[in-house]
């Protein structure tokens, strides 16, 4: 690499050789004509021979310049093609981070529809509760559960994270759940869930004492719903995600009362990337596609 002339000098030579004009090369490169002439002088000193024949109103390649120009042009075309291909790969792949609940209960079932509508854009989804730092991690956008967005992020509400108790039909009958207060007899999958206290208060039921004995904590709606379907107790979850389970009779939402603490699921991305074609395409798809969830 030490035997190569400065890249700026090579770029100047390639442009001048292509245009056969110092003025046009300077305009293309955003340089002054004097600066281009200086770069050519550096290159001629490294080569040890003139690269151009200066004539009163035009220039021409010297014999040495004519031998060098095709190889330099080919090298720059290779570089242009490589960067164009890289940009194409970047623009053709949307890297998306999503909170697990949204990823498993809506995104996984629907992402294929985006792919059908946008066959030139592939989507890589990482399901994680980790809050992505877009400035330091290789993600284009994300789906987050939040009450407000961080500075510098643009966001679009996809779904309010409303909550209600859900349980298996067997437990509804076993514990004779007919009014909200009856739920106090049903085993709680997460007894200290703040959604439980908030919902009971909304339903006019006195909040129970927090359990003093140890209990397990499953840590995600997906696991809590699995336990509820298995008849292990009542879970406080977002009903909008579980319409299929209700329709199939695996889960019951015994009361229409919905609680909400201000959280929502948002499609987010850096404000500076608002006009990125792949982000715009996904935004234009997912916001209308989730409209029924917000109804």
Automatic annotation (TrEMBL):
<dbReference type="GO" id="GO:0043565">
    <property type="term" value="F:sequence-specific DNA binding"/>
</dbReference>
<keyword id="KW-0238">DNA-binding</keyword>
<dbReference type="InterPro" id="IPR005119">
    <property type="entry name" value="LysR_subst-bd"/>
</dbReference>
<dbReference type="GO" id="GO:0003700">
    <property type="term" value="F:DNA-binding transcription factor activity"/>
</dbReference>
<dbReference type="Pfam" id="PF03466">
    <property type="entry name" value="LysR_substrate"/>
</dbReference>
<comment type="similarity">
    <text>Belongs to the LysR transcriptional regulatory family.</text>
</comment>
<dbReference type="GO" id="GO:0006351">
    <property type="term" value="P:DNA-templated transcription"/>
</dbReference>
<protein>
    <submittedName>
        <fullName>LysR family transcriptional regulator</fullName>
    </submittedName>
</protein>
<keyword id="KW-0805">Transcription regulation</keyword>
<dbReference type="Pfam" id="PF00126">
    <property type="entry name" value="HTH_1"/>
</dbReference>
<dbReference type="InterPro" id="IPR000847">
    <property type="entry name" value="LysR_HTH_N"/>
</dbReference>
<dbReference type="InterPro" id="IPR036390">
    <property type="entry name" value="WH_DNA-bd_sf"/>
</dbReference>
<keyword id="KW-0804">Transcription</keyword>
<dbReference type="InterPro" id="IPR036388">
    <property type="entry name" value="WH-like_DNA-bd_sf"/>
</dbReference>
<dbReference type="InterPro" id="IPR058163">
    <property type="entry name" value="LysR-type_TF_proteobact-type"/>
</dbReference>
<feature type="domain" description="HTH lysR-type">
    <location>
        <begin position="5"/>
        <end position="62"/>
    </location>
</feature>
